[in-house]
Amino acid sequence: MTTALQGGCLCGAIRYEISAPVTALRVCHCTHCQKNTGAGASVNAVVLSKDFAITKGKPKRFTTTADSGRVLSRQFCGDCGSPLYAFREVSPERLVVKAGTLDDTSSMKITAHIWTKSKRPWSLIDPACEQIEGNPA
């Protein structure tokens, strides 16, 4: 049996758990992730929504149209502002969890970079990782 992964926001008002293993992380360099994180990219774990549960608190929601043209719902802490996860409205069965909000990422590795066509010039990408100029299929 796999132990659930735990995570939450900076202030602790929101906590969650993921009941499936996560080993691969994907870095998104789209302009929306840059603005959302205040950094050059966002490091994410893609999980099935059935494997994700909020265990404490209630996130706020911000809905926008992503660089892909799809409507994206971003969930964040209304107290500290920490971005937590997002999902496309056309595919709510998958969530993109912000890896920095996980308590333990020691078993995880970045395996892919997406939206590299909009990466910042100072963003370094490991050449061993898969690189996709836009949205993955």
Description of the structure:
The N and C termini lie far apart (31 Å). The chain has one helix spanning 31-37; strands spanning 5-8, 15-18, 24-28, 42-48, 52-56, 60-65, 71-76, 83-88, 94-98, 109-114, 130-131. Strand 1 and strand 2 form a beta hairpin. It has one helix and eleven strands. 5% of the residues lie in helices and 41% in strands. The radius of gyration is 14 Å and the shape is globular. An eight-stranded mixed β-sheet has the order 6-7-8-9-4-3-10-11. A three-stranded antiparallel β-sheet has the order 1-2-5, with no helix packed on it. The longest helix has 7 residues, at 31-37.
Short description:
The chain is mainly beta and 137 residues long.
List keywords for this structure.
mainly beta; 8-stranded mixed sheet; 3-stranded antiparallel sheet; 41% strand
Number of domains in the coordinates? 1
CATH T-level topology: Metal Binding Protein, Guanine Nucleotide Exchange Factor, Chain A
Q: What general outline do the C-alpha atoms trace?
A: globular
The number of helical elements comes to: 1
Output the structural class.
mainly beta
Q: SSE order in H/E notation? A: EEEHEEEEEEEE
Which percent range describes the beta-strand content?
35-45%
Helical residue percent?
under 10%
| Biggest β-sheet: strands ordered side by side in the sheet | 6-7-8-9-4-3-10-11
CATH architecture heading:
Beta Complex
Strand runs, count = 11
Measured between the Cα atoms of the first and last residue, the distance is 31 Å
Low-pLDDT windows of residues: none
CATH class: Mainly Beta
